[in-house]
Design a protein that fits this description.
The complex is a heterodimer. Chain A is α/β, with parallel strands linked by helices. Helices cover 33% and strands 29% of the residues of chain A. In chain A, the strands form two sheets. Chain A has a six-stranded mixed sheet with strand order 6-7-8-3-9-10, sandwiched between helices. Classes of the chains: A alpha/beta, B alpha+beta.
Chain lengths: 238, 395
């Protein structure tokens, strides 16, 4: 595959995002007036101390949480205004998620886990098996397709999770601390995999504490206390 | 894929799934037994009443057949009237009594039926033949076992015993010509049947031309209700009982059984429902992370619910099918206990299996399985994704 590069056209546009929620008696302002544009093909790392609102920001961008105010537009569609069923369908077809804890279905094999979003998208069995095999080969697990998550290492499970996230060819991949539960060596492998996914055309937004992962991104956004305090492009990313 | 995921999830917790299925099987067995009990005895009794094709019975005024020792006088007049009624094809008068058979130094007492052998509807010959002469009789297995008599033996029998004279009355010498299965007798009841006129004669003047019961068969082309009404009009001094009347009487007497069956059946269903609800709730709580991630990656809420409901249905169906087999075995065992209930015909089945009963039990349990899965799965699939993910991550 070739390096698709970054285009000027924004894929993600967030405007004046606020997210408040109650924690006991207190009202927490997790995200406070954040605006962010992410271009197609970009690779953005959101970094910052724990509790700064970066995971909340990622959830808002992915349509799995609703902002208290502000707007989120992905590929021209107002995600924040979608009803639950429409937002679910939008995530299925346009957004891939990778989580710190992998969250694979333990009862299913690696290939079945990758097939799951495609089955939900009503892709024919033969087509989704072919695509799942292709994706597992892409993440380096071609020989382990019939293993269950419990039979895979943490790094291998995260690779399956990435393959699952890419199943329906999303334009946007969101990852929340994807190297958080991996050892250093496996973390490096994962960083290389994310870079490859981005070079192959998928826009990535990753939330991380991992400096190496952040260094691999094309752009790093620093958050503190629910606001963006720094936003800069970096050389050598992806 | 949903079926695959449901099956894989159940297989992953084999012991728990198996135990739940066993629990449902026990519940299903009890439910089936109660469904069978609620209708079985009634259906069995109706089958018994119609087993020999007699749709109508005539008992002494105000009584049920063999409910009292009362008898009907001028039996030959009644037979004449019945023969004149349009639609009546067969008349079988029956006189009940006791027969004391002297075997060496002991006496075996049996329930005796005086019948017209050619028209009788009280027994079926299993060995030998039906009586053809006035001094012949047939007997039940229990009588033969108790008396040690064999076919062809000559028996000294008496219809009564005078305690003052300490002697038997109405003595006769009778020849045993057949072994018979008595349809209306209770289990282990020693029974014999002999020609009506012989028993009347043995019982003396008090039984002359008297019978306990008439059984009447209507012609296949005749309307039984019309025949019944004609008999009621022509013979006001007896109580005519149709099969429907008898079934109403049975229904009244069995209402306690049906209520008991209904309550126990409902309890069985509730236990099965609660068992599966508990299991699905525990399973959902254990898998909140998986469920929420399914929602996050774009699996529709209804599909998540369906997948979990499928698990509940699978447990219910497999448990119910196993339970149907278990229910049939336990029904057979319980039936053998209840069949020895005093005074009930041995041919009565308390638990009569009909395919409809199995479908009813299976349908109820599948419905319960669906309901049991819907609430916990809907609750799990409706949790806010972001908050639940954060809570799961914190652990």
């Amino acid at each position: 595959m070739t390096d698709a590069g970054v285009s000027g056209e924004p894929l993600v546009v967030a405007r004046d995002l606020h997210r408040d929620y109650r924690m006991g008696e207190d009202l927490v302002h997790a995200v406070r007036g954040v605006s962010l544009e992410v271009a197609r093909g970009d690779y953005v790392a959101i970094v910052g101390p724990s509790g700064c609102g970066k995971s909340t920001m990622l959830n808002l961008l992915g349509g799995i949480d609703r902002p208290s105010s502000g707007s989120v537009v992905i590929d021209g569609e107002r995600v924040d205004q979608m009803r639950d069923a429409a937002a679910t369908r939008f995530r299925l077809m346009h957004v891939g998620f990778v989580f710190q804890r992998f969250y694979l279905m333990p009862a299913l094999t690696a290939i079945e886990n990758v097939e799951l979003p495609m089955a939900e998208a009503r892709l024919a069995s033969a087509a989704r098996q072919a695509r799942a095999r292709e994706l597992l080969a892409y993440v380096g697990l071609g020989g382990r397709k019939d293993h269950r998550p419990a039979q895979l290492s943490g790094g291998e499970q995260q690779r399956v999770a990435i393959a699952r996230a890419l199943a329906n060819r999303p334009q946007l991949l969101l990852a929340d601390e994807p190297t958080g539960e991996l050892d250093a060596k496996t973390g490096v492998e994962m960083i290389e995999l994310f870079a490859r996914v981005n070079r192959d055309g998928t826009t990535i937004i990753v939330v991380t504490h991992d400096e190496d992962l952040a260094r691999a991104a094309r752009r790093v956004v620093h958050m503190r206390d629910g606001v963006i305090v720094d936003d800069r492009r970096q050389d050598g990313g992806a | 894929m949903l079926f695959r995921l449901a099956w894989a999830t159940l297989s992953r917790h084999r012991s728990r799934t198996l135990l739940a299925m066993l629990g449902v099987a026990v519940s299903a067995a009890m439910l089936l037994d109660m469904v069978m009990l609620s209708s079985g005895m009634r259906a069995s009794f109706k089958d018994l009443l119609l087993s020999r094709g007699f749709q109508l019975r005539l008992a002494p005024k105000g009584t049920l057949p063999f409910d009292t020792d009362a008898t009907i006088g001028d039996a030959s007049d009644i037979v004449r009237v019945l023969r004149s009624i349009d639609g009546v094809t067969t008349i079988s008068p029956v006189l009940g009594g006791q027969l004391h058979v002297v075997r060496g130094d002991r006496t075996v007492t049996a329930t005796a039926l005086g019948v017209i052998p050619a028209a009788q509807g009280d027994y079926e010959i299993t060995q030998g033949r039906t009586p053809a002469a006035p001094n012949e009789l047939v007997a039940s297995d229990d009588f033969l076992a108790a008396s040690g008599a064999r076919l062809g033996d000559t028996l000294v029998a008496a219809a009564g015993y005078d305690p003052q004279l300490r002697s038997f009355t109405g003595r006769r010498t009778l020849t045993l010509v057949g072994r018979a299965h008595f349809l209306y007798m209770s289990a282990e009841q020693k029974s014999v049947a002999l020609p009506l006129e012989t028993l009347q004669a043995m019982q003396g003047a008090a039984s002359r031309d008297r019978v306990s019961l008439f059984m009447v068969r209507a012609a296949p082309s005749a309307n039984v209700d019309s025949v019944f009404k004609r008999i009621e009009t022509a013979l006001p001094r007896v109580t005519a009982i149709s099969t429907e009347t008898a079934m109403r009487q049975v229904d009244e007497r069995l209402s306690y059984f049906r209520q008991l069956a209904l309550i126990l059946g409902a309890v069985s269903l509730a236990v099965g429902f609660l068992l599966v609800t508990t299991l699905v709730t525990v399973s959902v709580n254990e898998r909140l992370g998986e469920i929420i991630v399914m929602r996050a990656i774009g699996v529709a809420k209804q599909r998540v619910v369906l997948q979990i409901v499928l698990e509940g249905i699978a447990i219910m169906i497999v448990g119910a099918v196993a339970g149907l087999g278990l229910g049939l075995v336990t029904a057979r065992y319980l039936n053998s206990i209840l069949a020895s209930f005093p005074g009930l015909p041995a041919a009565i089945d308390f638990f009569l299996f009909e395919p409809r009963d199995a479908w009813t039990a299976l349908g109820l349990l599948t419905g319960a399985g669906i309901l049991a899965g819907i609430y916990p799965s809907w609750r799990g699939a409706s949790l806010p994704i972001a908050i639940t993910l954060r809570e799961e991550a914190v652990g």
